[in-house]
TrEMBL record:
Protein name, UniProt field: N-(5'-phosphoribosyl)anthranilate isomerase
Superkingdom: Bacteria
Chain ranges of the N-(5'phosphoribosyl) anthranilate isomerase (PRAI) domain: 6-208
Gene Ontology MF terms: phosphoribosylanthranilate isomerase activity
Record pathway: Amino-acid biosynthesis; L-tryptophan biosynthesis; L-tryptophan from chorismate: step 3/5
Cited HAMAP family: PRAI
Family classification: Belongs to the TrpF family.
Enzyme Commission number(s): 5.3.1.24
Length: 214
């Protein structure tokens, strides 16, 4: 039985939030990135943060956003952590962590073992590194595209930080992903949707069950 923690990313409606909580997700991802079909307006994020009310931790996803944008969203949506999904440097990660007083996660795009090795530069700066599949060149979105990378790149990985696995996870493949990588946290977005940005409770339930049975 796996003890991997579960993050449902791209939660953008009260129904999706309630479904994620009902199936005992540890983290709910709120997306603050205009190009995403899961993007949240500040007012809607605030309403979801109030509805969540500490039943799980809200993680705000940002892509190369400025300090004021992140700080405003963190306060309004009662975020428990910040996830940076752009080109943020270790210095930027560490600075935000100090300014906000919140855990900061850094997504790292992976297509080779060199990408995983290079993530070591975030040790001591990020509270958690999230390994995600590298988006195709020119893609509008850095994640949430349903792409999978070669999980064997993480087989036997000894991380210098807390870490998690993202990228193309679904109810059908997450157990295998955990078996291959030993991931202590798994992050899903499009894999529990019926259409882009539309969460499906049946798929959330199936994903959570598959994680716990892995």
């Amino acid at each position: 039985m796996s003890t991997a923690r579960i993050k449902i990313c791209g939660v953008n409606t009260p129904a999706a939030l309630d479904a994620a909580v009902r199936h005992r997700a540890d983290y709910l991802g709120f997306v603050f990135f205009a190009k995403s079909p899961r993007n949240l307006a500040l007012r809607d994020a605030a309403a979801l943060g109030a509805r969540l009310s500490g039943r799980a931790s809200a993680v705000g996803l940002f892509v190369d956003a400025d300090d004021a944008t992140i700080a405003e969203a963190a306060s309004a949506a009662r975020l428990g952590a910040i996830q940076l999904h752009g080109k943020e440097s270790p210095e930027r990660v560490a600075a935000l962590r100090g300014q906000l007083g919140l855990p900061v996660w850094k997504a790292v795009s992976v297509s080779s073992r060199a990408d995983i090795d290079a993530a070591a530069r975030y040790a001591g700066a990020a509270d958690l590194v999230l390994f995600d599949a590298k988006a195709p060149k020119g893609a509008d979105l850095p994640g949430g595209l349903g792409l999978v990378f070669d999980w064997t790149l993480l087989a036997g990985y000894r991380a210098p930080f807390a870490w998690g696995l993202a990228g193309g996870l679904s109810p059908d493949n997450v157990a295998e992903a955990i078996r291959v990588t030993g991931a202590p946290l798994v992050d899903v977005s499009s894999g529990v949707e019926s259409a882009p940005g539309v969460k499906d409770e049946g798929r959330i339930a199936a994903f959570a069950s598959a994680v716990r049975a892995a």
